Amino acid sequence: MTRQGGAREVRGPSAATGGSGTADPGNVALFAKLAADWWNPEGPNRLLHAVNPVRMGFVREAAIAHLGADPRSRRPFAGLAALDAGCGGGLATEALARMGAETTGIDASEEMIAVARAHADTMGLSIRYIAGEVADLVRAEAGRFDLVTSFEVVEHVADTGVFLGALRALLRPGGLLIFSTPNRTLASLAIVKLGAEYVTGDIPKGGHDWRKFLRPQEMERAIGAAGFRLERIEGLGWSPGRGLRIGGRRDLDYIGIAIAS
What's the pLDDT at 189? Predict the structure, then answer.
């Protein structure tokens, strides 16, 4: 482990060897192309920048309701250990750290982790970053975390059951998983898959396999099989006059809360 400024680097075995195989190497390589421009709010990741405050507000409310986080504090997650699984360049990860959590970010892309680490150092944030897979982290840190976030990740992994099972193993009993993922509908095929990849170019071509998108009922079954109790699912999208918001239709994307049994 080395320390550079505030961000700590840990290299997981899967970053070099393939590890436990939850990541799809081809998909990881495709999205690594976005790493250099990750923190540009007007770049290819502009939608992630726009939706991040909305998602993190949802995370804050869930942690207050389920983990006893202090709603009056500027750092309500102080005393909590949080993991951002599939952290990319660190958008949600940095938000968790700013709210006071002892924060770890893990991603299968070494390029993404390098960008995340460099940005955290610039911001003076103490975040542990790991290049690897969550299944490898279980061996050393089972039951360590109070909160796990995983946004727009489950649709990219090679084995959904193994991935969700690893997240459950990393959480303490009663810990909180907050996830978001696209729904498998004709609307998501047109907008998330075809539109973002072939019209706007916001996502590399081939970045999504629409067949791997999970409908909410499918996600509920997978979550239950992994040892969680699904608490809540809400639509995540845009509406005229209100912009990006949580609630309403689920046909494009949804966000959910699950409790580790």
Answer: 80
